[in-house]
Design a protein that fits this description.
Elements (H helix, E strand, L loop, with lengths): L4 E6 L3 H6 L4 E6 L2 E6 L2 H10 L5 E4 L1 H17 L9
Antiparallel strand pairs: 1-3, 1-4, 2-3
């Protein structure tokens, strides 16, 4: 059995919250939600796939993992000779 991770995310729209509803456990303030997930990579993928401007408020390590994953993806898709910022 895997112990789930928790995160606090800010989702600006109700439609976005509905898209991520399977992860949301309870509200954490205006447009903020406590989310529970077992696989960080899959959770980040769902945030990206939602198309919403979701902001990870906690934990910092999850936000850093998102930034690193996006940086690697941008670098892999940069035109020849260009480096992603």
């Amino acid at each position: 059995m895997i112990i789930p991770y928790m995160a606090v995310v800010e989702i600006p729209t109700k439609l976005g919250a509905m898209c991520l509803g399977k992860y949301i456990k309870k509200k954490a303030g205006k447009n903020r939600y406590f989310c529970e997930f077992r696989n960080p990579a899959l959770f980040l993928g769902m945030l990206l796939a939602s198309g919403e401007q979701v902001s990870i408020k906690e934990p910092e390590w999850l936000r850093a993992q998102l930034e690193e994953s996006c940086r690697r993806l941008l670098e892999a898709n940069a035109a020849d000779g260009e480096k992603a910022d």
